[in-house]
Amino acid sequence: MSKEKLKVIISGGGTGGHIYPAIAVAQTLQKELNGNVEFLFVGASDRMEMEKVPKAGYAIEGLWISGLQRSLSAKNLLFPVKVVSSVLKSLGIINRFKPDLAIGFGGYASGAMMYAATLKGIPSMIHEQNSYAGITNKILKNRVKKIAVAYDNMERFFPANKIVKTGNPVRSDICEAGNKRAEGIAFFGLNPTRKTVLIIGGSLGARTINQSIEKDLELLKDANVNVIWQTGKLFQSEKASQMPVDFCLKVSPFIYEMNLAYAAADIVISRAGALSIAELAIVGKPTILVPSPNVSEDHQTKNAMALVDKNAAILVKDSESKTILVPSVIALLNDTQKQENLAVQIKSMAIEDAAQRIVQELLALRK
Question: Looking at domain 173-347, which CATH architecture does it have?
Fold first, then answer.
């Protein structure tokens, strides 16, 4: 076998749900090939991947691409121009980098790059994180050789003969969080005799969840629990700063030590992004999901329902959150049997080796 490095283009971005699985796959492929691989990431030039990917140690090139605005906007007139520009730039990147394989993780930049890769005959696959397929992956379904998915019944969107269920890649430190409860409690300075509620709304926070928690902070205080609350950088709680010291309330714009936060948690409140759900399944925590209504095709509700239908999570609608979210948490805190059932069911949906599965499928595309 040639000792030349395998060259792989990885494309995707716009949200952490596209970026972090892509990075996890790159890291796994690096280990699998003992470093004998060269990567080039391709993303949208003004999105978070341009910061996150270099931070993880990988080169990235940006495309001038963005999605259609939902409202009537003059920006939509530029969309066809951006698509053509991005496909042409992608073809130039391929001619220069000469990849052996290409894999896309969703987002408009992935659409342009993967379209170009299939035009050039590069063996290609895509990964769909959600239970409801995104528009980019639906467009690419007949062009790529393989489609990795995280949920059952994806034949609704993709050719059945191309589908392989791999799950969503999760960071290795989160996979190892299960036996670190004492470490997590100590790290956040919590009371080890109390149950812990973890509240996460994604890296930018979730306004409705934050407002619901702030409204009913006294109820949580009276429930005698620890609370770890990731608010996102756009929300500050005045009421939280007024709570008594003996209420173990830890508020932060962003939690970098998510493995320890999960380890400390007994119950989790979360949005229903695909990556969050994959992490929650790995750690096996009783979960209340509040799907964001501000996402395409309402895919977070569909993600959540895939769990709810298997009694693996509780769903609280965003529109009902301010009324019933905290009362639902307290009801769950008081129902030990329900907690155990939810934990068992969500854990049964976990796929811990998702990145390895994707890597094996990608490498199998080599001619």
Answer: 3-Layer(aba) Sandwich (3.40)
